[in-house]
Design a protein that fits this description.
The complex is a heterodimer of chains A (about 250) and B (about 425).
Chain A: E1 4-13, E2 16-26, E3 31-35, H1 42-50, E4 56-64, E5 67-68, H2 74-79, E6 82-85, E7 92-96, H3 97-111, H4 119-132, E8 143-144, H5 150-164, E9 168-172, H6 180-193, E10 199-204, E11 217-222, E12 225-230, H7 232-241, H8 243-253
Parallel strand pairs in A: 3-10, 3-11, 6-9, 9-10
Antiparallel strand pairs in A: 1-2, 1-4, 4-5, 7-8, 11-12
Chain B: H1 12-20, H2 25-37, H3 53-56, E1 61-62, H4 70-74, E2 83-88, E3 91-92, E4 104-106, H5 126-134, E5 138-143, E6 153-160, E7 166-168, E8 171-176, E9 181-191, E10 194-196, E11 199-204, E12 209-216, E13 222-232, E14 237-244, E15 249-258, E16 264-273, E17 278-287, E18 293-302, E19 307-316, E20 323-333, E21 339-348, E22 353-362, H6 366-373, H7 379-395, H8 401-414
Helix pairs in contact in B: 2-5, 6-7, 7-8
Classes of the chains: A alpha/beta (about 250), B alpha/beta (about 425).
Chain lengths: ~250, ~425
């Protein structure tokens, strides 16, 4: 059975249709990448899948492990194993990262029928996973994302992903604003999480990230539809020719 | 001497009973002042959001002496303070107090020779006058130049109500000498139907520093109408935190006067409204000299039918150049029936001035909520956590560590949905 299956998905925000019939199937163990120019609907797709209520689903279906995803509240989707690494991680002054994360980890564990992690077990896990993305654990005593640099925020997102062990992870432009060293660290963290049961949807504007997180399938999103699907070579072609090339071809064929 | 009807002077009884006892000239004069000012009503700008009808129709009595049980104290004690001075119904309670530290005296025995209300910024305030009319005791703290008092002095006022509604008060007079440093925490708590009208006046000499807090942890039957006045000489720093978590009305009027060049005042407020409580803060920050800075950060978390009002006047006098004043008021509404009002009032008579103010009222931010949900945190827990975050941000800024902990615990114990949070959310 496929892990994530999206069929003819349409979504609107403020009456404007952003997604106009997305079809996408991700099998366990696969890494898919969605590329597209600004405004093509990449982030909308990510947020719709995670359950952002600002968007209205007007048509289509999405299932996670065969279960209707769109019917679940966002927190249930997360506990069922969906994870969204935010393009702009939110700062929450007044709540330490550790407290926030322990609450999240234990909510997910409870849902999976596991015992709560005690303080010792939690800190052990934090230490191990923080090392994956070279995140200073002193940072985790600070309020959530507050005072984090751009790179630290993105590394913290991947760290959270490692802590929550999702079955399906969506990375929304995790590479934006990263220098090459930070990009490598983030990619290394993601690659450590790759396994035969887990799926990834890597949303990016640039091919650069895909040098480090090598995708199995690359899709090009244009005006809310997937207009081209290929292997990693497609990403290189896009890098070379630009999005205008696809836009032109699409309008000609239409 | 008191011939007004109950509608115009609800404290007639109280004052008459007082006048049967020996009464000093200045307290008698305060009585006259109350009459002259008249009972405040909501048509007056300063009282627009504060409903005083219930107190107007109550027959108040001056609080009688009362005994205190240790249990009453424990809930409001703060660990790690240098001295604790306990007052019950406006009178000093030596049994529950620590020895008076150097430089600290009781006002009671000195009351007739201590000029009160000299130069008061509250000459027009009915309840400030009432505070003087009702005064029994208080604290005089005088820190000589250069002395740094370790720890903080904790002044606790406990109201022990009986059958009759009682009115009580306390005066705290503080002087911090040149370069000296002091911490003072006030707690207002108790039970029974009561009207409390505390007044604290602080004088800071050059380069002095005072860290002050007033914790309003009164019972639900108590109306708390207090005042705080500060005068600051050049280079001095005044930090004050007002925690409004109790009382059916918790109103604090602050007058902070930055008299000397380069003085700094930071006044923070944190309120938690539940049921039909009203939180009211009225600040007047006076920039009288150049290069002074003032900060006002007031936040209220409002649940149930609670209401909050914030009035912030910043006055920048002629010649007070390089003034840097910031004022913010933020309200988080946890229920559709909670309400808040904010009124910034800027009066600026200098041209090289940085004055900013901002007021927001809203619900929990959608993006922050989505972020927590997207991590699997159940919605009810996520909402409690974000309400806590709103509060904790202010608590984290309070300069006295013992107080931070106390405030955090108090706020957590009152937070709607706190049972969904773990005590370790208090990170300090």
């Amino acid at each position: 059975m496929s892990l994530l299956e999206i069929k003819n998905l349409h979504a609107c925000v403020d009456g404007v249709e952003i997604l106009r019939g997305i079809n996408l199937t991700i099998n366990p163990g696969e890494v898919h990448s969605i590329m597209g120019s600004n405004g093509s609907g990449k982030s909308t797709l990510a947020r719709v899948l995670a359950g952002d209520e600002a968007y209205e689903i007007t048509k289509g279906t999405a299932t996670l492990n065969g279960v209707d995803l769109l019917d679940m509240a966002p927190d249930v989707r997360a506990r069922e194993g969906l994870f969204l690494a935010f393009q702009y991680p939110v700062e929450i002054p007044g709540v330490s990262t550790k407290y926030f994360l322990r609450t999240a980890v234990n909510a997910v564990r409870e849902h999976r029928g596991l015992d709560e992690l005690d303080a010792y077990g939690f800190l052990k896990l934090v230490k191990e996973k923080a090392a994956w993305v070279q995140l200073d654990s002193a940072l985790l005593d600070r309020p959530v994302n507050e005072g984090f640099s751009g790179g630290e925020k993105k590394r913290a997102e991947v760290f959270q992903m490692a802590m929550l062990e999702p079955v399906m992870a969506i990375l929304d432009e995790t590479d934006s604003g990263l220098d090459i060293d930070a990009l490598r660290i983030v990619a290394k963290g993601v690659n450590k999480l790759r396994n035969p049961d887990r799926g990834f949807l890597v949303i990016t504007h640039y091919q650069r990230l895909l040098d480090y997180i090598v995708p199995d399938v690359v899709h090009v999103l244009l005006d809310g539809r997937i207009v081209r699907t290929g292997d990693k070579e497609l990403a290189l072609e896009l890098e070379e020719k630009g999005y205008g090339w696809i836009e032109k071809e699409t309008s000609t064929s239409a | 001497m008191c011939t007004d009807t109950i509608e115009t002077c609800p404290l007639c009884d109280a004052i008459e009973k007082l006048s049967e006892r020996s009464m000093s000239e200045q307290r008698r004069e305060a009585c006259h002042r109350m009459h002259a000012i008249g009972w405040p009503n909501r048509k007056l700008e300063a009282w627009r959001y504060c409903n005083l009808k219930d107190i107007a129709s109550t027959r108040w009595h001056p609080a009688p002496p009362a005994a205190l049980s240790q249990a009453d104290l424990d809930d409001f004690a703060i660990d790690g303070t240098a001295a604790r001075l306990v007052f019950v119904n406006g009178r000093f309670d030596p049994t529950h107090s620590s020895p008076l530290p150097d430089g600290v005296r009781l006002l009671g025995p000195l009351i007739d020779e201590t000029p009160l209300d000299v130069d008061t910024p509250f000459a027009d305030d009915y309840f400030a006058a009432m505070s003087t009319a009702l005064i029994e005791d208080g604290v005089i703290i005088d820190v000589p130049a250069g002395v740094v008092l370790p720890g903080s002095i904790h002044v606790m006022h406990i109201t022990e109500g009986g059958c009759d509604p009682i009115a009580t008060t306390l005066r705290i007079l503080i002087r911090v000498g040149c370069g000296a440093r002091l911490g003072v925490i006030e707690t207002w708590a108790g039970h029974g139907t009561a009207l409390t009208t505390p007044m604290t006046e602080a004088h800071l000499d050059e380069d002095a520093r005072l860290d002050h807090a007033r914790l309003i942890e009164e019972s639900d039957e108590t109306t708390h109408l207090g005042t705080i006045a500060s005068r600051q000489a050049a280079g001095s720093t005044f930090e004050s935190a007002i925690l409004s978590v109790g009382g059916r009305i918790a109103r604090t009027r602050v007058h902070a006067s930055l008299d000397g060049e380069g003085a700094h005042a930071a006044i923070r407020g944190l309120g938690m409204g539940t049921d039909s409580r009203h939180i009211d803060n009225a600040l007047h920050v006076m920039h009288a000299s150049p290069a002074c800075t003032s900060r006002e950060y007031f936040k209220n978390l409002l649940a149930g039918d609670s209401t909050a009002a914030f009035t912030g006047r910043i006055h920048v006098a002629h010649g007070a150049q390089q003034t840097d004043a910031v004022q913010t008021n933020r309200n988080l509404l946890l229920s559709p029936t909670a309400k808040s009002w904010a009124r910034p009032q800027l009066e600026i008579y200098a041209d090289d001035v940085k004055c900013t103010h901002g007021a927001t009222t809203g619900e929990i931010e959608a993006e922050a909520l989505f972020y927590l949900l997207a991590r699997g945190i159940p919605e009810a827990t996520a909402r409690s956590l974000l309400a806590w975050a709103f509060v904790a941000e202010v608590v984290d800024e309070v300069p006295l560590p013992a107080l931070r902990k106390h405030m955090a615990r108090r706020m957590l114990s009152m937070l709607p949905g706190a049972e969904r949070l773990d005590e370790s959310v208090v990170s300090m």
